[in-house]
Write a structure and sequence with these properties.
With 221 residues, this protein is mainly alpha-helical. Helices cover 71% and strands 5% of the residues.
Length: 221
C-alpha cells in the first residue's frame, strides 16, 4: 500500500511504518506521512532509518501518553489515581527512547504492588499497564532499527521476521494486554539472541562500515 503511495521509499522505512502501526491502515498512512515530513525537514542530506525511528518513536510515545492520561482521568472515580497520573505525566518529559524505557520500567515495577478490586486489577492500572507494554515495544522497535541500519542486521531481521513479530505485539494491544506482553517477551528473546550473535561476529572479523539506508529522493504518488 505504501509503495503505491510513495515513490522510491526504501524498504527499511516500510518496515518501520509497519512495526509502529501494526499494519493498521490508518496508522500506517499516518506514520508514513510523518516520516515524509521528517525527511523533508532534513533536506538533501537525507535521513537515516535510525534517525527516523527515534523521531517517530518519541512522537508516538507522546501521543500515547496523552491518550493514557485522558483515559485514566475517565476511569472509575471511586479510586484515587492521582499519583499514577503524576507518574504517567512524568513520562512526557523523556526526550529519547532510552529515557522512555527507563521510566516505563520504573512505572511497571510500581504497578506490580497496586491493589485490585476483587480478583480484577483496577481499570486505571490496566490502562497504565497498556502504556508500559507499548513503550517497551517502542524500545524494541528502536533496537530493530539499529539492526536495519547494517547489512548483516538487515539480513537477520528479515530472515527472522522481527518486524512482523513487533507488528503482532502492536496488534495484540488492540485486544489484550496479557497477550501483547507475552508476544513482547518472545520478541525480546529473539531480538537479544540476534544482537548477541551479531556482536560476536563483529568481534571475530572486522568489516567495512555499511552504507546506511536513507530517505532521499522520494515523492508522494
Amino acid at each position: 500500500m505504501l509503495s503505491r503511495r510513495i515513490v522510491n521509499l526504501p524498504e527499511p522505512f516500510l518496515h518501520i511504518c509497519h512495526m509502529l502501526s501494526g499494519g493498521l491502515p490508518r496508522d500506517l498512512i499516518r506514520c508514513a506521512r510523518e516520516m515524509m515530513t521528517l525527511a523533508a525537514a532534513q533536506g538533501a542530506a537525507g535521513i537515516s532509518v535510525e534517525q527516523v525511528a527515534e523521531a517517530l518513536i518519541i512522537r508516538e510515545a507522546a501521543a500515547k501518553i496523552r491518550a493514557t492520561t485522558i483515559a485514566m482521568r475517565q476511569a472509575d472515580a471511586d479510586h484515587d489515581a492521582d499519583d499514577l497520573l503524576v507518574s504517567v505525566a512524568h513520562l512526557a518529559g523523556a526526550d529519547t527512547t532510552a529515557e522512555l524505557k527507563q521510566m516505563a520500567e520504573h512505572l511497571e515495577k510500581s504497578l506490580s504492588g497496586r491493589t485490585a478490586v476483587g480478583d480484577r486489577p483496577r481499570r486505571e492500572i490496566l490502562i497504565a499497564l497498556d502504556l508500559c507494554v507499548y513503550l517497551r515495544l517502542l524500545e524494541k522497535i528502536r533496537r530493530i532499527a539499529d539492526l536495519i541500519g547494517s547489512k548483516k542486521g538487515w539480513s537477520r531481521m528479515t530472515a527472522d521476521g522481527l518486524s512482523q513479530s513487533a507488528a503482532s505485539v502492536r496488534q495484540a494491544l488492540e485486544v489484550s494486554v496479557p497477550l501483547a506482553r507475552s508476544r513482547l517477551d518472545l520478541l525480546e528473546a529473539r531480538l537479544a539472541s540476534i544482537e548477541t550473535g551479531l556482536r560476536s561476529a563483529k568481534g571475530t572479523k572486522a568489516a567495512p562500515a555499511p552504507k546506511k539506508p536513507l530517505i532521499g529522493n522520494v515523492a508522494d504518488a
